[in-house]
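Morning run. Coffee first, then this:
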Amino acid sequence: MNRYLEAKPLRTLAVWLPMMLHPLSAVASKVSAPELDDTNTTPTSNPVIEVPRCEAKDIPSVLHESGIDYEDKQRVFLDTLLPLVLMENELVAEKRQKMLTHFASLARGEALGAEAREWLRTLAVEYRVDRDPLQDVEARRALLVRVDIVPVDLALAQAATETGWGSSHSARKDRDLFGMTALRTNRTVRTASGRLVRAAKFASLREAVRSYIHNLNSHDAYKSLWLIRTKLHNEQKPIQGAVLAAGLTKYSTRGAGYIKQVRTVIHQYHLNRYVNARLLPGRTSATVIAYAN
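And here it is:
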């Protein structure tokens, strides 16, 4: 259960971006090697999976029927969540590219228009960066490590872990896929241990996914995750869930035990096969189409 809630390529980036990231890369390289886990992950060898833009508002009712086969349950759960994670990551990637374009303009000494300046300042507020990215290079570095995708296999593994593959009460009734307690004050529930907590209630499953990704990218509790991700970028390595899981120490009171469980789910159910999943072009549909295999 979560403890913390709250364009075209530019040639100039090839020179400028590594210079911007270098100080953070030095910090990221200090992340304890034993905590990193990139075993059993071969994303480059996985085939590209084309995913329809399907958006289910609720957890399918079949997931909490007693007669459903366990493998079918996993398939339906993955079919439901995968496009949502991909669509939200797509929006984050677009936001990151726009940010990099503006940063490149600033690095060349060019003046940004009023709309671009306001957009960057709003972005800083959204990602809890106190300084002004228009004036402060440290603010830009802070945004560079925060505004980024969350790997699909990590999101799927955490959702499966937190909801029992979609069978939990919070997933069915509140669309809470990631154990995001204390995010909102509109509902109080009692945990299995008898403790009362504030529980998140979302308008849709996609809203829950969006909140989860933003939470990981904006809360200082996950700074180590940002640094690991930055290190992978700098080393031109794939962004893999089993590796980034090392940054989830503060996601759960279970600490290292939670990280181990998330990695086990990724490896046992081969969720890294979705690292190369790509959304099909077209309009979003409310129909869920099976493609997990």
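Residues 6-35 have pLDDT under 50 and may be disordered. Good start to the day.
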